[in-house]
Structures are given as structure tokens and as C-alpha cells.
Amino acid sequence: PHTPLRMSSGLGGLNKSPHGVVVGLCQLQLPVIETKDQLDAQVDRVCALVGKARRGSTSMDLVVFPEYMLHGLSMDVCDEIMCERDGPIVARLRAACVQHKIWGCFSIMERNPAAPESPFNSGLIFDADGNEVLYYRKLHPWVPVEPWAPGDLGVPVVDGPNGCKLALIICHDGMFPEMARECAYKGAEIMLRTAGYTAPIRDSWVFTNQANAFQNLMCTASVCMSGSDGTFDSMGEGMFCNFDGGIITRGGGRPDEIITCELRPDLVREARLGWGVENNIYQLGHRAYVAVQGGARDCPYTFMHDLVAGKYRLPWEGQVKHTDGRSCGFPAPVREYAPSAAASNGHGDAKK
Q1: Radius of gyration (C-alpha) of the chain in whole angstroms
Q2: Would you call 140 helix, strand, or coil by DSSP?
Q3: 85-129 pLDDT per residue, tens
Q4: DSSP code of 79?
Q5: What is the pLDDT of residues 261-281, one digit of tens each?
Q6: Least C-beta-crowded within 10 Å: which of 24, 98, 246, 305?
Q7: Number of other CB atoms surrounding residue 120 within 10 Å
Q8: 47 burial level (CB within 10 Å; 0-12, 13-18, 19+)
């Protein structure tokens, strides 16, 4: 059954409140990108849609584009269609934000000099003056399908439009409750999730977006690519969830539609301070505070201790069948994980 929608008081930003943040989620048509010329043309399309977002909503603060917006779903690691954080492709995206006076969230497949066969799947947010405010590398590629290197910059939380605290995760990241918890623990009031997911993931997409919101008293704004490239069918499904887990606004599958919603980070702050029952982000670190002063502040979770110690191992670990990318045509890797040089600059430090 279709999940009932919670009404937004701002009518998608038409009646923006003083504390509101109006976000547009662009259900971008899934492209086919195989050459530099196709990449250049796709950048032009995205920049044009930044303009569409501004023309369609003078109150919009931030427009968000899906993962794979410049790459499509081919998993091609050809250097010709890779991007750089400071390269000309990103400069054009930055310029579009300045031209239309709007914040923008974008996706690139980023060259990895240390391992050219394993680029990074990266996200960038620019403000309306063209300043880079967030830079993130996807921590959890969708293995065994995706060949991207594991992100090594942590999960940044930044000051977003109208004073909100903003975070970005990418696609499969959102299937790990630890990712949303990390965003909230570092102060995020709005968590963006960009994706290229296709139709088989639709139900999982919906309930994880809702759970990520409810478990952390945090608004979530999530969007996938949309339409078909002749092989794959992305689902669109732009959706906004309130901090209580209810869906505020939800799109469908129409390519290039921009789903808009006003989010209220001020009400997130109020809930985090004022809620008793189900204030789960606080209660995780203060168990049973009715019985013991301040609550129990230990860590009773074995997996957390083992992960920190580098000893994470499931009871069925030795029986897992897929532990590399060979089932999807990728050779078994030979290199061990090591953070890149960029990781030494901090967790997603932005550049001006």
C-alpha cells in the first residue's frame, strides 16, 4: 500500500517560513556517457536544470542532483570521463550556482591517482557564491557491482543554507544505519542522500529513508536518477522525510522533475532538546537514565569494539560467497586499503 503523505506547511516552499530551508530534488534523466563529448553535453544539461530550479522556485535554497548525474550506470572507469575536484567540469557546476544564486549538490566520479582503476565516487556542495562547502567520498560503494575506491574522508557536516546543519551520503551509504547516525551525531539536521538506484531497491529506499530520519530526529532528502538508458531503469523517487519518520513529500518516476519541499531545521532542534520518548540519538549514549544517573554510558555492542580494533568478523564470515567483484566482471584486487593523501587534510574539508 502507498504510504500516506504528511502535509508540508510551506507547500513546497511557496510559503517559505523564516526558519525554513527549501530543497529541490532533481530526478535527472539517466544518461549514457561513453565519451568526453557526451560528458560535456551532460554538464550543460545539469547546468540548465540548475537554472530551471531557480526559475521554478524563487524561494529554493538548494538543488540536489543524483549520484551518477554525469556518468550514467555503466561503471566505466575510463579516464576520459573521470572528473577532478578542481577541474573544468566542476568549475562549470560551481559557475551555475553563482549565475542562478542557488546552492547546488552534485555528483562526480573522481580520478584516483593512487589507483586509476578505482576512482572515487564523490559529492560536492557549493553555496550561491560558488564556495565549496562540502566534499565527500562515498564510504560504501554498492559492491560487488561498483568498482569505486572506499571513501577515506569520513562524513562531513557543514553549515548549510539559512543556518541549517547539512550532511551528504551517497546511495548504498544509506543502507547502513551507522551512516545516518554519524551524520546526526556530528550535528546534521538535514541529511541528503543521492543515488542511482533502480526499481528493485524501491521498497528498501523508502523504509531506510524513513528509518534514517526517525532514529536520528533528522530530516532526510533523497533522490535517484530517473528514466531508462536503454539497459537500466532508474526510479526517481525523490522523497523528503520529517524527523519523526513521516514522508512529507514524495515524487514518482518522471525524468527531470524537481520535487520541492520546505524543511524546518528549527523544529529538528526543538525535538532533539524536548523529546522524551524516542529521543534515540540521545538515549543511545544514556541508556536507562530513569534507573541510573545520567544513564549507562558504556558501549555494550561487540561489533563496535571489534570494528575499532580491526577485528570485525561475522559468525558466518568464512561462508560468504561474494567477497570481491569477480561476479560482476572485475578482477580480484591485490592492494590493501590505505587512506589517500587527501585524507590527511581532514574529513571532507571544503575549499573556497
Answers
A1: 20
A2: coil
A3: 999 999 999 999 999 999 999 999 999 999 999 999 999 999 999
A4: G
A5: 999 999 999 999 999 999 999
A6: 305
A7: 26
A8: middle
**How much is the pTM?**
0.95
| Catalytic hit among 138, 146, 182, 241 | 138
- Burial class (CB within 10 angstroms; exposed 0-12, middle 13-18, buried 19+) of 192: buried
Grid cell locating 42: 551532460
Among the options 16, 26, 67, 105, which is catalytic? Answer: 67
Considering only CA atoms, which of 181, 124, 194 is closest in space to residue 158?
124
| Distance in angstroms (rounded) separating the CA atoms of residues 269 and 256 | 33
Residue type, 39: L
Each residue's pLDDT tens digit, 70-91: 999 999 999 999 999 999 999 9
Active site includes 67? yes
Catalytic residue among 105, 171, 219, 241: 171
Report CA torsion sign: 85, 88, 90, 91: positive
Please check whether residue 109 is in contact with residue 119, taking contact to mean a CB–CB distance below 8 angstroms: yes
| 144 prior amide bond cis, ω within 30 | yes
Please report, as a single letter, which amino acid is at residue 136.
Y
Please compute the mean of the pLDDT values over residues 39-46 and round it to a whole number: 98
Cα dihedral: 140, 219, 125, 208 (round 10):
20
In percent, the amount of the chain with pLDDT more than 70 equals 95
Q: Which H or E run contains 133?
A: strand 132-137
CA geometry: angle at 13 spanning 204 and 99, to 5°?
100
Closest alpha carbon to 106 in 88, 93, 92: 93
Q: Cell 590527511 belongs to which residue?
A: 344
Cβ atoms 160, 21 nearer than 8 A: yes
The three-class DSSP label of residue 6 is: coil
The answer to whether 138 is a known catalytic residue is: yes
